Amino acid sequence: MDKEKFRIEAKQMIDNLVARIDEFESKKDNIKAGARKELEETLDTLKSKKELLKAKYDELTGSSEDKWEEAKEVFSSASESFKEGLGKIASLFK
After folding, report:
1. Containing domain of residue 18, as a range?
2. Residue 11: is its pLDDT beyond 80?
3. Three-state secondary-structure class, residue 6
4. Of 39, 41, 49, 35, whose CA–CA distance to 83 is shortest?
5. pLDDT band at 1, cuts 50/70/90?
6. What does R_g of the chain's alpha carbons equal in angstroms?
7. How many domains does the chain have?
8. Most CB atoms within 10 A, among 3, 19, 44, 85?
9. CATH number of the domain that residue 32 is part of
């Protein structure tokens, strides 16, 4: 995948992940009290990871050709960690 296509897809992924956080944030009052604390802790963690992911995206878009593959790998790893957190939150609503 070329750099520009990956950059576009990465930006779309960040936007989608942020939208999911907002969605879960708006639904947190509908969750059982016992799970609410875990939800809030996980949301806080994801918000921190969101900032890290955005920083990695900025590194990715500003990287030179020789550093692009490395930046792409780091971004992909950070996004997988973020997705795992979203999966954990989704399971609280089941």
Report:
1. 3-92
2. yes
3. helix
4. 49
5. low
6. 15
7. 1
8. 85
9. 1.20.5
**Angle at 71 (CA atoms; ends 68, 72), nearest 5 degrees:** 85
DSSP code, position 31: S
Q: What is the pLDDT of residues 28-87, one digit of tens each?
A: 888 887 888 888 888 898 888 888 888 888 887 887 877 778 878 887 888 888 888 888
CA nearest 28: which of 46, 43, 48, 47? 43
The two three-digit tokens of residue 79, written as one number: 């996004």
pTM of the complete model: 0.73
- What's the CA gap between 64 and 60, in Å, rounded? 9
